[in-house]
From TrEMBL:
Broadest EC class assigned to this enzyme: hydrolase
Gene: xth
Entry keyword annotation includes Nucleotide-binding: no
Listed name of the protein: Exodeoxyribonuclease III
UniProt keyword annotations, A-Z: Hydrolase, Magnesium, Manganese, Metal-binding
Binding site for Mg(2+): 7, 34, 147, 149, 247-248
Cofactor binding mode and count: Probably binds two magnesium or manganese ions per subunit.
């Protein structure tokens, strides 16, 4: 089973890129972030014609998350992260596909830091850790995938010294991510590629993609029941070089059937 996550950075603006990538790589399940489209503007018909069922939680101009499944039923569990009933930003959606619980998330950026946006990022992280602990306690086969807006270590950034004061790399952010992983999750890309330079995001400025001046901020966390079934993981970095593409590239994993 091939599962992918992709910060699309504008669902309708990037739809031709998404459809091309789906046709070429044929993932079974896809988590999407930054739809930047209200609920009624999601291209459900175009995705269905490409073979994918979808659930989504849109928001006008900002945020937005979705889960796609190729020829499979998707049973939505929730479309918000528990812990704050006043949070109106669409950053989390959770579903069951093929008896696997999949949480698709778009964690807040947090810049400028310090400030209210960074406070919101850390508060959101606390809610995520609480929900993740609940999922582990239930002993479910779980995947948490998406744009975490976290650079976990220095090896996950081109010239990490340039990011020392950025919310993605501040000690509090990295500590929160480590605390999450230490609950018992497996960072899928690092599990299979512990020493490789791997990036998932390249800024539009300063010719970052051509220079491979990137960041690894899109992650797959696997519960123990799925970590033992991990067989492959990678980044479709070539997609970042396509015309009118997102500043992220799709990230994927493959799981064995048993």
């Amino acid at each position: 089973m091939k599962i992918a996550t992709y910060n699309i950075n504008g669902m309708n603006a990037r739809l031709p890129v998404l459809l091309r990538w789906l046709a070429e790589t044929k993932p079974d399940v896809v988590c999407l972030q930054e739809l930047k489209a209200p609920q009624e503007k999601f291209p459900e018909k175009e995705l269905f014609n490409a073979g994918y069922h979808a659930i989504w939680h849109g928001q006008k101009s900002w945020n937005g998350v979705a889960i796609l499944a190729k020829g499979k039923e998707i049973r939505q569990v929730q479309n918000e992260l528990p812990g704050d009933e006043n949070d109106d930003q669409s950053r989390y959606i959770e579903a069951v596909v093929d008896e696997k619980r999949i949480g698709c998330l778009y964690l807040p950026n947090g810049n400028p830091a310090p400030g209210p946006k960074f406070d919101y990022k850390l508060q959101w992280f606390e809610r995520l850790k609480a929900h993740a602990a609940y999922l582990l306690a239930e002993e479910m086969p779980v995947i948490l995938a998406g744009d975490f807006n976290v650079i976990p270590t220095e090896m996950d950034a081109y010239k990490p010294e340039r990011w020392l004061k950025d919310a993605l790399f501040l000690p509090e952010t990295r500590a929160a991510f480590k605390e999450l992983v230490d609950q018992g999750w497996t960072d899928a890309l690092r599990k299979l590629h512990p020493d490789e330079t791997i990036y998932t995001f390249w800024d539009y400025f300063r010719d970052a993609y051509r220079r491979n001046a990137g960041l690894r901020i899109d992650h797959f966390l696997l519960s123990p029941l799925l970590a033992e079934r991990l067989t492959a993981a990678g980044v479709d970095s070539q997609v970042r070089g396509w015309e009118k593409t997102s500043d992220h590239a799709p990230v994927w994993i493959e799981l064995s059937d048993d």
